[in-house]
Amino acid sequence: MITTVFEGATIVDGLARPQFSTDIALSEDRIALIGDCSDREARRRFDCRGKIVAPGFIDACSHTGGKWLTAFQANSKSSQGITDEITGLSTAYFLDHWDERINVGELFALASRTEHGIVGTFFAENDVQSAIEAGAAGAAIDLSATPLDTAVSIAQQAANAGAPRVILRIRDNANDVVGAVEEAIAIAERASVHVHIGNHHVVYPHDTGRMERTLERIDRARTRGASITCDVAPYTATWIELASLLPAGVTPQALHDETLRAAVAMEMQARLGNVWHDVMLAEVGSEERMAWCGMRFDDIAKQTWRTPARAIVDFIAQEGNAARAFHFCLRENDVALALSADFCAVGTAAPSYDGREQIFGLIHPRAYGTFPRIFGRFVRQRRTLSLEEAVRRMTSLPSQIFGLTGRGVLREGAIADLVVFDQEQFVDTATYLEPTSLPKGLSYVFRGGINDFAPASARDI
């Protein structure tokens, strides 16, 4: 039986084929028919004339992590049209739609809650075989903390167990980002696995042209037969712990010593130079210092009568790893360059939020704005991508990369994950100072045939 019909929709099917207009009908959680449904009985009908209907978007780089343990409505993702998430960079393995907790080594694995469309992750580097047997689809490896030979061994074990996919956090996004990407390529070629570089970006100020060189290396490897892809978030600021700016070997706990604080501030000034306007305090560990959030550290320094480096050191000493910042060290032209590569998907590099979390400060706007920003900035304004190609990067490409059967394409028999939006109005409104502002132009999100998100203005579409 037909449960839902979208009438007169402009279909963008996820395969970058030209858009066309017709009806699309759902039967429970599946797409039943793409074509004229005027003579079909249905429980619900929506007039979608002038609206795009596309497959549900897949977040190729999510940090939702342990929030699967809570039954929450992740409106930060659904309000962007996201119906599925790929997580892995904060843990070590990912699953394809499981529903149970399993024991793996000393830690546990949690599969996705299918009603939320989340693809689960878990950590079990010490027992790859058990993880794969339990349902893991591949491994996630942090190369900043894992030697290359060890990473190759893990990838080979996963491949031998029938899960030849690896999500990577590369070792370096700054000085040696080209060399770091070459390590990722080495894993793909030596272990004969698919390697996906999560949240690919290049940190400046350094010499220009390094994003182009990394993409050229990947393209050359793909020509040789290596299977390697990446994803990108469309913003010019990273989202860091302030403690990551400390010298190697110095921990927040050590900064109780006044003499050490002064020495660390001097080292940071010498090493980092005059970057303090590019660092904005985002989040702290308590309400007491929230008033500083949203300020750049050169301004904080003026108000506290300290040097910017010393102000940062003092915040780290007081707040520890809870102190986070936006570091404006990326270039939008690099984002556009990455998006011009046909192997680059889209990822938020952010957890899911539902507005009930206690946050002392600000989150990154990419948590609420990544996918609509691609359409507003890189489809309509910069014309980096066509609409059809942008949808492919968000749907069939990540589905293919991560083996999400039945998702990412509008075709009869596929899972009924769909988004309905206005081609000219779909845009992000989240900013660094108002990061939870919802996108505009999104009409509906259906996950598994169920209406998952509909702003008040769209309920009578």
3D structure, described in words:
The protein is α/β, with parallel strands linked by helices. The protein has two domains: 57-236 and 331-406, TIM Barrel; 243-327, no CATH class. Helix content is 28%, strand content 23%. It contains twelve helices and 23 strands. It has helices at residues 75-78, 128-133, 148-160, 177-191, 210-224, 258-272, 297-304, 308-319, 332-339, 366-381, 387-394, 396-402, and strands at 4-11, 20-27, 30-34, 44-47, 52-55, 57-62, 82-87, 93-95, 101-104, 107-110, 118-119, 121-122, 136-142, 165-169, 194-197, 228-232, 238-241, 279-283, 324-327, 344-346, 418-421, 442-447, 450-453. It has a nine-stranded mixed β-sheet with strand order 9-10-12-8-13-14-15-16-20, with helices on both faces. A hairpin with a 2-residue loop joins strand 22 and strand 23. Helix 3 (148-160) runs parallel beside helix 4 (177-191), helix 6 (258-272) packs across helix 8 and helix 7 packs across helix 8. The longest helix has 16 residues, at 366-381. It is globular and about 80 Å long. It starts with a strand and ends in an 8-residue tail after the last strand. The model is unreliable at 67-72 and 90-125 (pLDDT under 50).
Provide a count of the helices: 12
Sheet with the most strands?
9 strands, mixed
CATH superfamily of the largest domain: Metal-dependent hydrolases
The count of DSSP E runs of length 2 or more, i.e. the number of strands, is: 23
> Which CATH first-tier class of the largest domain would you pick?
Alpha Beta
Rg over CA atoms, rounded to whole Å, is: 23 Å
The amount of beta strand, in percent, is 15-25%
For the terminal residues, how far apart are their CA atoms? Answer: 23 Å
The helix-and-strand class reads alpha/beta
Report the helical percentage: 25-40%
Instruction: Tell me, rounded to a whole number, the average pLDDT.
Output: 86
